[in-house]
Fold each of these.
Amino acid sequence: MSGIGPVESVDSTDVDGSYEVIGGDSPRLTDRWHTLPQRTRRTALAVIAVVAAAVGAVLLPPVHDDRQSDPTPPVPWPANVTAWRYVGLAQTTDTPTTTGFFRFAVTVGSGPPVAVHVTGAAFDGLTAEAVPEPDFTVHTGSTHRVTVEISVSDCSGLPLNADLAFLDVTLRNTRAIQHHSFIFGSAYSNDLSELLHRACGTTNARPGPRPSGSAGSQNVDRG
């Protein structure tokens, strides 16, 4: 047998309480929390919630809304904001001719200015050019009056009655360069048809200008 004797039970009913304390827990906050009145605990929880929200607002990074941070709308396509309107003939004539002058009003509804270049007039055998300047710029909210010179270069295959005639143009702004066709109503189609009838409705065997007497044309001048 060793020197360790039997373990004696501790009687909690001892009056003098004279027994050895070998350990113990220190007081905990939760023990004190549960001793507080219910009203005091509710008030403390409300204060903690307010303080936590304030700290979170300071520490958390701000949330950016792209729609609010960039209110500027994108630059529109030039063809979507450019409009052409036919005004009428710049001059009229009854004599046979292969050239006509047509007036238009060009507007830009929104966005940056649009640079315009006329490239064609509906059919092969026709050439078109804005005069006096082939290229021009239209600013937003303004109307630009332009005259387009249309000439017949080849009558073969040209319809004498131009139905739904249109102009081919190039439009350019800071977003894009677009090739576009503007279709006009009956007024422009009728005026263009008159030009086609004058240029191609009669015989094309018209005599050219007489030679000027140069060395290369002396034989032609004889007789």
Amino acid sequence: MAVVEAGNFAAAADKLKLTRSAVGKSVARLEARLDTRLFHRTTRSHRLTEPGQSYYERCRRARDELAAAGEELEAGRRDPVGRVRLTMPIIIGRLLIAPLLFDLGERHPQLSFDITYRDRRVDLIEEGIDLAIRSGALDDSTTLAARALGRQVMGVYASPGYLAKHSRPASYEDLVAQRTSHRFVGYARQGWRQPCLCRQCRHPPPL
């Protein structure tokens, strides 16, 4: 390509900061590999053959595509573009994350979001997900990068009507001791163990 665009081997050598011999040998090796002649060579000029012209055009298009790809990536670093696929828990996603994404989308109009609200964990790579927001312990993974966003605390709650009919535990230990006298619904999700209310577990596991 340098020989074609510079006009001759000598000018191409100057542009590439190589010797004219090195450029000539490089073209000769390329012709040998392609098993075709790319240039008509005379003592005064070098002119592309028909296969050489076709090969040059394809190489030029490939170079332009690479340059355009680099420019697109550079533009993406300056101003985010494209679609981001996310998955997140239903309540956290709708109440906390979605408003942030709405503001982000307003600041970057070329950025869009494809959001799936679900509590179960998914295979990010298998389902083509770019980002997952999850609560709970993170399994060891060599393919994912994770960052802690905050801490979520789960509690035990009762209505005034329920407490009017049952004794009110003063502490977690009281709840453990009075377990058989209380009725409750526990929240759990796939991959997360139900809190244990035995006497050996003196405090609930962190979320």
Amino acid sequence: MSNEAVWDRPEPPSKPSPTPLSRELIVNAAIRLADGGGLDEVSFRKVAAALKAGPMRLYGYVETKAELLDLMVDEVYGEITPPSPATDWREGLRHVAHGIRDAAKRHEWFIDLLSNRPHQGPNALTHMETTLATVRFEDIDEVLGVVGAVMAYVFGAVRGEITELRAERTSGMTEEQWQRASGPYMQRMLATGRFPTLARVMHESSDSDPARRFEIGLDYVLDGIATRHNLASRPASSRSAPSAPSTAPAVP
């Protein structure tokens, strides 16, 4: 097995074949399988079958499943457009947050592969660079704190949304249908008087769609950052917006 990162390893020389292969073809086939049935559908055998090639041929391009997953993640990072360099920190981070959510809605498995260990593919590094650079603080640790807080919210919120979508497919019930089915039990529990705040949630809260809930939560995080750094009271032109790049465990 090579000690080189897959990003640095050249592909095998092309040879005449009725079933041409490339790293790009392999990655795209793996993404289609994952989009259709989740990460459990991704194997060298199934990818090779989708490409009508022998499984052993794939190892010349990708040596391990871990490498294949890294390549898939990096391909999705390439779908996320960076914020404009001219935008302020708040709108820049909002743009990134929605870009991640949109990518995860297209590729539900993507959120499963995001963790505290940053990915190092070229698209992932570009994503980290442009995200961090939208926060123009002099103190790089403050930049990391701001971006890390936003990403922690985004990852958690998106993971919850994707989990709900999966639960709907598994149970065959929407969230509203599930709530109605569990209604009699919840009414009995609330009638005990032990859960007054939950009773308010049940009877007073307004149902909002997932996109609206995501936006509200994101605003809470961004408002908190603005308050902590006294940004809300400054003119936009003089704000020391969240900047400067680096790799950070909390950044996707």
Amino acid sequence: MTGVPASAANGPSGAQGAPASAAPGATSDAASDAAVVAGSDAAAGGGKPARGGKIAAAAVNQASVWNIANLLTMLRLLLVPGFVALMLADGGYDPAWRSLAWAAFAIAMITDLFDGHLARTYNLVTDFGKIADPIADKAIMGAALICLSSLGDLPWWVTIVILGRELGITLLRFLVIRYGVIPASRGGKLKTLTQGVAVGMYVLALTGWLATLRWWVMAAAVVLTVATGVDYVRQAIVLRRQGIAERKAALEETEA
């Protein structure tokens, strides 16, 4: 971003020309607005670029599809077929292959913790990320559950309960989005963490007391899955009722 000569501040033509020189490559309304503010401040300050304008423009430029948050999401999507191949290699029961599959699953879970945080912290939220992130989450978890059930390590009813809840809540969010957004709760985050730990323990070829422990962790994950699912349904009903009431009140006020 370049500064504007001090003489430009003395005439309207200089002020109008500031955005073009400040952000010649801007491709969005937000970038243009940031350039206008930066250019005006630079003109008023005797040719010095405005620091706030630089930060705003940088944030806008970073919010592209090819940012670190979205790259982590893409990595998670690419890990899904790799995980399945490792999980089913050599019949699906070789401890070495299962350990490699666990490593792929662990990487996917870790990237899930970071991509959303990075996107919100550094203003990297994009439409692609909003769609791809939940798909990547459910793809790796679904692949793990289906592989475990197909190998006989996990009852099918557990897989059906968890995947049914995840898909149902996702659909519910879309149905009530016109009335508002259902925020992620602490219970939901705990459910995700517990599911990840439980599935990870089942992916590993554990024996003895660790095999018993993973059963209890999975039981806790199932309970949290059902409980948080019921809570989301309750929130959706409340949100819909509030939205309908607000629309009705606004309509009555308009007619009055």
